[in-house]
Amino acid sequence: MMKHVxxxxxxxxxxxxxVKYASYSLYIxxxxxxxxxxxxxxxxxxxxxxxxxTVTGDRGRLSRVSSESAAGxxxxxVGQYAVDLQSFESLVLPLFRDxxxxxxxVFVIDEIGKMELFSQAFIRAVRQTLDASSCSIVGTIPxxxxxxxxxxxxxxxxxxxxxxxITKENRDSLCDDIVSALQECxx
Length: 187
Hints:
The chain is an alpha/beta fold. It has one domain: P-loop containing nucleotide triphosphate hydrolases (Rossmann fold, 3-Layer(aba) Sandwich). Helices cover about 30% and strands about 30% of the residues. The chain has helices at about 15-30, 85-90, 120-130, 150-155, 170-185, and strands spanning about 5-10, 30-45, 45-55, 60-65, 75-80, 80-85, 105-110, 135-140, 160-165. Strands 5-6-4-3-2-7-8-1-9 form a 9-stranded mixed beta sheet, sandwiched between helices. Strand 7 (about 105-110), helix 3 and strand 8 (about 135-140) form a beta-alpha-beta unit. Helix 1 crosses helix 5. The longest helix has 15 residues, at about 170-185. The termini are close together.
């Protein structure tokens, strides 16, 4: 039986907007929605990093363009971005605590990507939430390129996961299908 919905697609195709649309649509019909999104941070028109934003609006640093480690902490890097693992974990990990209680709950994970996967605690929390009986996930995973990400492969191979591939051509028409699929997951 399908329980979770994940979206994938090329960068800038609209997977994050589809997840936000689905989350908001479920919230309107009295489903408890929790979780997080990642958003670009821009300065003078140039992308300088990414923030993590909870569905309630709390914001924390995920990464910034940097050639040095932040505050002397060990540096985790993806391309030109230094990942602030401490900031990410302090904002995101507490959100997972609410996934084990109650009914009609949806947990948003935007996204399971290279930056987020530096956190072993995040990986464990995602696995626990996938197995939780009272919670469905709507999330995003990257399009496979190069060496596969273990957790992304694990999620993709689960029998209780439906994956939608978002393109510029189908992104508007798929949003209602995604919401319907999530509503079925919650029955």
